[in-house]
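Translate structure to sequence.
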């Protein structure tokens, strides 16, 4: 480490009481008072889905887990897509009962994969944002490589605000994930002549299926 960098880090440690113990840092984070938060009393599911739609995502609500596959099948048909899916290895996805004709593989996506299927740690109602974390069975590339990203989420996974999402993550067992992604809609940019283009650096379509039951 360069001497200049070490000097900077030393000043930071001194400003924080010289603490280098991760437990002390965690205690400081957990005890930190929240800042002003916008007030809203909307139903979490209604607000979450409305915010997603405002960001050019598509959404669907189903009454129970046994309706998820039917909704995904209809979504693929509406978009003229083959029934070939690369999926994350997540509990809510492992329980899905796929009919004949579907090919669903749990693996790292390749460049020719069109449809990626994942869940998320939670959905943030305040902004209509998905919080996705990486793990051995949840490669981050699933969130960005396929052109179509389908996310299955239970209503119980919704939280009100970003601060609640971080609290939920810190309460998860095990170490912090290597990667945390926040997604609020399909990939889009208006850098060129202020014309919105989708799929610039990720999926050009995001579809969220919320299990209400």
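Result:
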């Amino acid at each position: 480490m360069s001497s200049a960098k070490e000097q900077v880090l030393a000043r930071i440690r001194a400003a924080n009481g010289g603490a280098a113990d991760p437990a002390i840092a965690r205690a400081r984070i957990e005890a930190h008072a929240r800042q002003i938060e916008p007030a809203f009393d909307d139903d979490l599911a209604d607000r979450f889905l409305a915010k997603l739609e405002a960001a050019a995502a598509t959404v669907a609500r189903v009454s129970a887990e046994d309706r998820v596959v039917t909704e995904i099948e209809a979504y693929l048909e509406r978009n003229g897509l083959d029934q070939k899916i690369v999926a994350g290895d997540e509990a809510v996805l492992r329980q899905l009962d796929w009919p004949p004709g579907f090919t669903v593989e749990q693996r790292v996506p390749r460049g020719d994969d069109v449809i990626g299927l994942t869940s998320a740690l939670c959905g943030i109602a305040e902004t209509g944002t998905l919080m996705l974390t990486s793990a051995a069975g949840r490669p981050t590339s699933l969130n960005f490589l396929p052109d179509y990203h389908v996310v299955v989420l239970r209503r119980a996974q919704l939280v009100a605000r970003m601060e609640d999402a971080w609290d939920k993550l810190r309460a998860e067992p095990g170490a912090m994930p290597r990667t945390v992604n926040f997604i609020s809609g399909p990939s889009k940019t208006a850098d060129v002549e202020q014309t919105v283009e989708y799929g610039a650096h990720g999926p050009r379509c995001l579809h969220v299926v919320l299990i209400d039951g």
